[in-house]
Specification:
- The chain is an alpha+beta fold.
- The protein has two domains: about 1-45 and about 165-200; about 50-160, no CATH class.
- Helix content is about 50%, strand content about 20%.
- Pfam families: CaKB.
- It is a multi-pass membrane protein.
């Protein structure tokens, strides 16, 4: 009687472990899917892939411009902010080009190097942009990314999704998938050992 209870408890534990392993594998596959439709397209679409050194030439703050997602679009959430323009000398080609914060900055407003987040306090936005401008004036040289194919003549300060971020995004689902596979393998080994012991 006790033996039957132990066998039943063992089978229940193995079933739960198998469900856990399969659940971990399923969650990792869903995570892979979301990474594939969100982060990977932005990474592959970016043409600014080569890092170089840029020398700051001019830093200007122009009059306020409306923030919008694209030129000519009417956005109800648009707000005015000082337009920071940073011009740099691209070491790789020697050209004078405009520097943008990220790829997203160029899409949101191609006239400004930096697009602040939406804020109702215009003084804070102005102080933030002035601080960024003073930092650019302070550091004359800085690392930047440019398009080696020449499709984009401008440069960006940092990529939204560099290779390290992409690898880090895939790390956790990979560990989860590996853990799920390991649990299933261990359960199968345990079942095989149990059958072998019973046969002997």
């Amino acid at each position: 009687m006790l033996g039957k209870k132990l066998v039943t408890a063992q089978k229940r534990g193995e079933t739960r472990a198998l469900c856990l392993g399969l659940g971990m594998m399923a969650c990792s596959m869903v995570t892979y899917f979301f990474i594939g439709i969100t982060i990977v397209p932005f990474y592959t679409k970016s043409v600014w892939t080569t890092e170089t050194v840029c020398k700051v030439l001019k830093v200007n703050i122009q009059d306020k411009v409306p923030c919008s997602n694209s030129e000519g679009s009417e956005d109800e959430d648009a707000f005015p902010y000082p337009c920071l323009q940073v011009w740099v000398n691209l070491t790789a080609s020697g050209q004078e080009v405009m520097l943008y914060q990220t790829e997203d900055t160029l899409e949101r407003n191609s006239k400004c190097s930096y697009v602040p987040g939406k804020s109702e306090n215009s003084k804070e936005v102005k102080a933030q942009i002035e601080t960024i401008a003073s930092n650019f004036k302070k550091y004359k040289t800085l690392p930047c990314y440019y398009d080696p194919g020449g499709m984009q003549t401008n440069v960006i300060l940092s990529r939204l999704y560099p290779p390290k971020s992409l690898l880090f995004a895939f790390l956790w689902p990979t560990l989860m998938f590996t853990g799920g596979c390991l649990i299933i393998v261990l359960v199968k080994i345990s079942q095989y050992v149990s059958v072998l012991s019973a046969w002997q």
